[in-house]
Design a protein that fits this description.
mainly alpha; single chain
Length: 406
């Protein structure tokens, strides 16, 4: 009788425990979880594109920041424990359900569904913290880090609930403060106790860049509105070329070098801070830039022969600029060198923004795509043999691999 009871007890404990991650590959459940983030990105695009104004852009970026921080939190979590084992799988499904409600609320997150958004977001973050507490059961250092994160998370969620009772500037200010406190927690409370599998962590962020680029492609189809003219066809081809160019600037060299740098970093504080800064923080302007580009593409396809309005023109040029600046910061954090031509192009795109409100939308899109393609051609030629070594020699030290890319 005792053996049966002991077996039952052991089985129950096993189901409530968390299995630590052992493999490096991204698991199917993680990709399934990301599908909800796809909807969230689409909703952010809709929030800005349906009512294009400076306030809607600010709102869209604040919402995206909150959603991004939630997503990256789960990426840290699944780099510690196996999301497909035991009761954790069910908890991830529950978090997905809450994230789905959050995504549905996005277009009205500052209006009629503000409270519902805040409460659903609180449920997403509560599940995240609960799973991290489970994962840190036998790791005091990780438990201390999770406790600190719980404090900053509670502050952020509480401010969002308070913001739901306001409107206008006070509401936006509380949102900004909530995001600052939530994202700032891991920076101010230290990073020594966190754990991660570096190759898995880097791959997860690479995949989310692809998912964001998918939103830019969806925007092309939505903007065309089931019509096809020579102008729409040309804009669609220019749009997919722009998305391909954005993909190239990340995955051709930078993603490879950065992933190897994270793997080679000393385990503990050095690796954790590198992951926090370069992936959790600096990937946000890249994803935000892609979402802004999606807004610009959607409006371009809808009116290919007319000049873009001020906000969509800024979304298109400013989005590419934000993406490039994120890449510049990403590289600097890893190898402490600045890609000058990417930096100059980002600044140039912002400088010529007024011209985009005069030229036909198709012309603006074609010019942006052409200059980005020209930069890629220049980099590919100038990197030469060094680029080939980066792409085909796994053992190449990361500092050496980018030393030629000045």
């Amino acid at each position: 009788m005792m053996s049966v009871m002991e077996t039952a007890t052991d089985t129950g404990a096993h189901r409530l425990s968390a299995a630590m991650r052992e493999g490096e590959r991204v698991l199917p459940l993680e990709l399934f979880f990301d599908l909800v983030f796809v909807l969230a990105l689409t909703q952010c695009t809709a929030l800005m594109a349906n009512r294009p104004s400076w306030s809607s852009v600010v709102q869209g970026m604040l919402v995206l920041g909150v959603l991004w921080w939630s997503w990256t939190g789960y990426t840290w979590l699944t780099s510690v424990l196996d999301p497909e084992e035991g009761a954790v799988r069910i908890a991830i499904f529950a978090a997905m359900a809450a994230f789905l409600i959050v995504s549905i609320c996005v277009p009205e997150a500052f209006d009629s569904l503000a409270l519902e958004f805040a409460l659903a977001y609180g449920a997403v973050r509560a599940a995240h913290i609960a799973l991290f507490v489970l994962a840190s059961r036998d790791d005091p250092a990780l438990r201390r880090s999770v406790t600190s994160l719980a404090l900053s998370t509670a502050a952020g969620v509480g401010l969002l609930v308070g913001a739901s009772l306001l409107d206008g500037f006070p509401q936006g200010a509380l949102w900004a403060l909530a995001l600052l406190l939530d994202m700032g927690g891991p920076y101010f409370f230290g990073s020594e106790g966190w754990k991660l599998v570096p190759s898995h962590f880097a791959e997860r962020h690479g995949l989310i860049i692809i998912i964001a680029l998918g939103e830019s492609i969806v925007a092309i189809g939505v903007g065309a509105e089931a019509q096809l003219t020579w102008g729409i066809a040309a804009a669609a081809l220019a749009g997919i070329s722009l998305s391909a160019a954005l993909w190239w600037t990340y995955f051709d060299v930078v993603a490879l070098v950065s992933a190897r740098r994270l793997v080679s970093a000393a385990e503990g504080r050095e690796r954790n801070e590198l992951a926090r800064d370069s992936y959790s923080y600096l990937h946000f302007p890249m994803v935000a830039g892609i979402v802004l580009v999606a807004v610009g593409l959607k409006k371009t396809l809808a009116h290919v022969d007319d000049p873009l309005a001020t906000v969509p023109a800024f979304a298109l040029l400013g989005g590419v600029s934000s993406y490039l600046l994120g890449l510049v910061g990403f590289r600097y954090r890893h190898v402490h060198t600045i890609n000058r031509h990417r930096l100059l192009l980002a600044l140039a795109l912002l400088a010529v923004f007024p011209a985009a409100t005069v030229l036909p939308a198709l012309a603006t899109l074609a010019i942006v795509t052409a200059v980005l393609a020209a930069m890629i051609a220049f980099e590919t030629i100038s990197y030469g043999e060094g680029r080939a070594r980066v792409r085909h020699e796994e053992a190449l030290p990361p500092e050496a691999s980018l030393a030629r890319q000045q």
